[in-house]
Amino acid sequence: MKLLKSVIALGSISLFPLFSFASKEKEVIGEYTYYIPYNVARDKAEQIAFERARIQAIANVFGTVMTQHSRIDMRASNGNENSDFWSSASSLVKGEWVSTIGEPVFEPFIENGNFAIRCEVKGMAREITAPKAELDVRLLCNGTTDAYESSTFKSGDNCYLAFTTPVQGAIAIYLEDEDGNMFCMLPYYAQTATCTPVSPGIRHLFFTSNDGDEEKYQLTTDKEIERNMLYVVFSQNDFIKPIDKSNGQELSLKTLTAENFRNWLQKSRAFDHTFQVVSIPITITADIE
User: Nearest CA to 52 among 106, 126, 132?
Assistant: First the structure.
């Protein structure tokens, strides 16, 4: 995935109090079997299996607000599983991942002619004792109104992001490509801030190149199909984003590894109970005439 940017200048909803006490952490264990589509690489399959095993581990101990049918789906995926379902599932379990214990165990195998990988994971998680601020996050393709909301792009399409929060806070936005690279989309390249402040009750629109430091992004690929993941990080408190670096090339974004990004998320969740991560799966297809 290539993320192109143009530098214009320098380069449903309630308010809940912030509780001062911390939920007790518990050890959790989970397992998930991911049936690998033909176009998903081994390392990406391991990442997906790991993330879903974590969701299962949390659900095993703290439960879920989902229906019994959805719980069954969580335990037995298949080749027709819906990425949107899993994106939602991570926010519907009644707990959150704090840290990983040891290394996850991956077991690749073939079942009925299909490649699969099983992941077993152990970690520490805590119960969510009060609802967090409900966020409205919309990824937009080639337009800035909600009518353009989409997670599917053709190579060269412009992407925008609309964000609304009921509480004062700060956000950062990252994009992960299929090679495990994390691109910092917000704060913008030319900005020195460690996060971007957002005000309550306002529809914030990012990547529109309307102000002095704003940037505009295009999602591109040289593959027939590519799957990326967008992460919107939010907290009611200011936070310090992880260390990222520029490769010195013009119109390039600051990057870090997926491992470093996840380690940062893990530490941030441990110390900030208002910390949230909204993940949006993105599909980019080649624009073939």
Answer: 106
pLDDT at 19: 35
Instruction: Indicate yes or no: pTM above 0.85.
Output: no
Spatial CA neighbour of 275 closest among 237, 228, 219: 237
pLDDT at position 222: 86
Structure tokens at 188: 């913008």
By three-state DSSP, how is residue 125 classified?
strand
Report helix, strand or coil for 117: strand
Per DSSP, 193 falls in state -
Q: Determine the Cα–Cα distance for residues 96 and 112; give it in Å rounded to an integer.
A: 34
Contact criterion met (CB below 8 Å) for 239 and 197: no
pLDDT in tens, 167-217: 999 999 999 888 888 899 999 877 878 899 999 999 999 998 755 455 788
Q: What percent of the chain has a predicted confidence (pLDDT) above 90? A: 29
Q: How far apart are CA 254 and CA 8, in angstroms?
A: 17
Crossing angle between the packed helical segments 42-62 and 68-75, to the nearest 10 degrees: 140
Buried b / exposed e over 20-47, threshold 16 CB at 10 Å, is eeebeeeebebbbbbbbeeebeeebbbb
CA distances from 81 to 43, 54, 70, 74, 78 (A): 19, 17, 12, 10, 6
Q: How far is CA 214 from CA 92, 154, 271, 276, in A?
A: 33, 23, 30, 24
